[in-house]
């Protein structure tokens, strides 16, 4: 069901774009793959083949980098770009991106009720090589917040636009959100399978990343990124978790219409 909703969202983007003259849009489309491990006990390596859509119309932006929708609050020619909008957040066990449908066979997940997905209000800030975002649940699910800040330095840049960036960042989860994902609330307690009561505290995860941007032409671009995340003790101590870190690799090819 979650996968069907994602593809419906993609279709809605395309239908909306079809209602406006093509010349009014700045549009990138393509596709790629994501491979990642998770912190969950005995969870197989996850992978997904995904479409890539990033569309901008005036101050409005839709697609992979923008959640459901974002509205730019600052002029486009400013170095500091600020935008606000809505996003879809689903980061618990058996979430939207568990595309291969191979879940954990650890007994701790027997009868486990995974947290619901959420709609969040999102604020984005970008300045030079820094980017940051804040999200707050507005759908009365976790009522939790997350915040992140990252820095990617262009270690190498060629005249034809090839870039190699390296950097890292911090991802913060509020106590309510961390507890929703990794805590064991009373309705989920089952000591017989090792699912004992647990309350997760606010967590700070540290990330290191390397990114390659390779333009084949002015319109065709390859974007690859490898990111490693070190998990907070509040997450690692959860009965659902058996990892101290996670790794994610993404590779996308997109076509840009100017």
TrEMBL record:
A Pfam family this protein belongs to? MipA
Print the keywords alphabetically: Cell outer membrane, Membrane, Signal
Enumerate the InterPro entries for this protein.
MipA
Give the signal peptide as a residue range, or say none if absent. Answer: 1-22
Q: Using the record for this protein, list the coiled-coil segments as residue ranges, or answer none.
A: none
* Location within or outside the cell: Cell outer membrane
**Family statement:** Belongs to the MipA/OmpV family.
- List the protein's name: MipA/OmpV family protein
Organism of derivation:
Rheinheimera muenzenbergensis
């Amino acid at each position: 069901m979650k996968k069907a909703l994602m593809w419906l969202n993609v279709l809605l983007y395309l239908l909306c774009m079809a209602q406006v003259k093509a010349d009014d849009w700045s549009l990138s489309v393509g596709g790629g793959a994501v491979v990642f491990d998770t912190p969950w006990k005995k969870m197989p390596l996850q992978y997904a083949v995904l479409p890539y859509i990033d569309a901008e119309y005036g101050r409005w932006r839709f697609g992979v980098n923008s959640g459901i929708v974002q509205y730019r609050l600052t002029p486009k020619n400013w170095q500091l770009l600020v935008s606000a909008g809505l996003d879809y957040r689903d980061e618990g066990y058996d979430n939207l991106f568990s595309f291969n449908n191979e879940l954990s066979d650890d007994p701790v997940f027997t009868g486990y009720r995974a947290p619901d997905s959420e709609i969040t209000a999102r604020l984005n800030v970008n300045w030079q090589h820094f980017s940051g975002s804040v999200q707050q649940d507005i759908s009365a699910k976790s009522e939790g917040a997350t915040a992140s800040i990252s820095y990617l330095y262009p270690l190498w840049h060629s005249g034809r636009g090839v870039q190699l960036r390296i950097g890292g960042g911090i991802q913060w989860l509020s106590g309510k959100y961390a507890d929703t994902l990794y805590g064991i609330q009373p309705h989920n307690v089952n000591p017989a399978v090792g699912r004992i009561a647990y309350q997760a505290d606010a967590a700070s995860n540290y990330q290191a990343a390397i990114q390659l941007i390779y333009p084949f032409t002015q319109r065709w671009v390859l974007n690859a990124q490898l990111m490693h995340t070190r998990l907070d003790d509040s997450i690692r101590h959860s009965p659902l978790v058996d990892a101290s870190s996670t790794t994610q690799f993404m590779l996308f090819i997109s076509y840009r219409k100017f």
